[in-house]
Design goal:
about 400 residues, alpha/beta, 9-stranded mixed β-sheet, 7-stranded parallel β-sheet, 12 helices, globular
Length: about 400
């Protein structure tokens, strides 16, 4: 397999190291504008690429003829890269949508998953456009499909996450621009066939994660999964809530209006508070993650419904290793880039086996593919993956 990775940041650089350990991967071409973490491996090639120049990107892909292109950049480049992959007739994977607000009051979903506009193009080329294929969205979509498949009827899919640095110090484990954009975006929930906007950080819920996480307070958070999963898995309700140990900081930024994209006038100069905040906050520094040894990411997905008319809960959970254990892997990864890159790798390695074509998210991958990915996840000793079914006695 020959792979092109577009974007050599905290995720792309870790992914290239993971892929270099796979015997089936013969060549990895890493494209970006910054190679501070340049990898020394004969199968890894580094190239500087301008992602805004579609013509040159197409020429590059036509010349290299990769089996797949991994978009590990900011989602604002999704469409540019997809168009290039269409013209070069190459398989494509990304990790998130740009998720732009749809002003049409009759729109079924408040946010548009822009990649799906190219479904026909990928079908015509007989190619795969696997979107939302990171850890969240991505692996949790797959877990939702796995849990739902065990039930005759699904009433409620709950996705709950923990992102904890183990410190009161502010640390951005991934692209600050994209994190702040998510913080400024109103979450959506799905209920009784309707997608609706809700308040950020609302609906506090104490949720029990597997140990060593335990009980944590979770809140509504803007995530792509909500706009995708109900379109492919029949459920009455779906929502995503997250625990973040810096949630009080995020709430303060929101309350002060610093996450607003609405221009304000300062001494006659119009500025967007969010743009100013983005420029003022520091970029992540390679190696800085080692200051947070207890930092950890985990997530649980529950499908609540019925089997033979009896209420049941099927729950899948993943607890990823703490930062101090990730450091031992020699990947220069943090507690978010490690699970994200790992998830991409697991999806990517199944590209030759996926029979479905077009643009689609992980929850509609074939059952055999889903099972194989989850089984590969279980084999990784640093990760605690659990799946269980229990009787449900509470109200849904």
């Amino acid at each position: 397999m020959k792979v092109v990775i577009l974007g050599y940041g905290s995720v792309g650089s870790v992914l290239s190291k993971m892929l270099s350990k796979e015997k089936r991967v013969k060549e990895i071409i890493c494209c970006g504008i910054n190679f501070k973490r340049k990898q020394e491996d004969e199968r890894v090639i580094h190239k500087i690429i301008d992602l805004t120049d579609e013509k040159k990107l197409v020429e590059f892909l036509n010349k290299e003829k990769p089996d797949a292109v991994v978009n590990a950049t900011h989602p604002k480049f999704n469409l540019n890269i997809m168009k290039a992959c269409i013209k070069a007739k190459v398989n494509y994977i990304d990790t998130a949508s740009f998720w732009d607000f749809d002003p049409n009051p009759k729109a079924k979903i408040p946010y548009k998953m822009e990649q799906t506009d190219h479904n026909k193009d990928f079908l015509k080329n007989n190619k795969i456009g696997l979107i939302e294929a990171g850890v969240a969205p991505g692996m949790d979509n797959l877990m939702a499909a796995e849990c739902a498949s065990e039930l005759d009827e699904v009433d409620y899919i709950k996705i709950r996450m923990v992102e904890d640095t183990g410190s009161n110090e502010i640390y951005f484990p991934w692209n600050k621009e994209w994190l702040l954009d998510e913080l400024s975006t109103k979450p959506i929930v799905y209920e009784n066939g309707v997608f609706k906007l809700v308040d950020s950080f609302g609906a506090e819920e104490e949720y029990t994660f597997p140990e060593p996480i335990g009980k944590r307070k979770t809140y509504y958070f803007a995530q792509d999964e909500v706009g995708s999963i109900p379109l492919h898995i029949k459920t009455k309700k779906l929502d995503v809530k997250i625990h973040d140990n810096n949630i009080s900081v995020f709430k303060t930024l929101l309350a002060l209006g610093l996450l607003s994209e609405k221009k304000i006038s300062v001494d006659g100069v119009k500025v967007k508070p969010l743009s100013v905040l983005t420029k003022l906050l520091p970029n992540p520094i390679p190696g800085e993650e080692k200051k947070f040894p207890e930092a950890r990411f985990a997530m649980s997905v529950e499908a609540i419904g019925k089997i033979n008319k009896k209420k049941k809960i099927v729950k899948c959970s993943i607890v990823f290793p703490a930062q101090k254990d990730i450091n031992k892997l020699g990947l220069d990864a943090n507690f978010i880039s490690y699970p994200t890159a790992l998830s991409i790798k697991l999806f990517l390695m199944e590209i030759p086996n996926i029979t479905k074509r077009g643009v689609f998210p992980p929850e509609i991958l074939e059952k055999v593919i889903r099972k194989r990915i989850l089984n590969e996840l279980k084999k990784i000793k640093q990760i605690n993956f659990t799946k269980k079914m229990v009787a449900c006695f509470s109200q849904i």
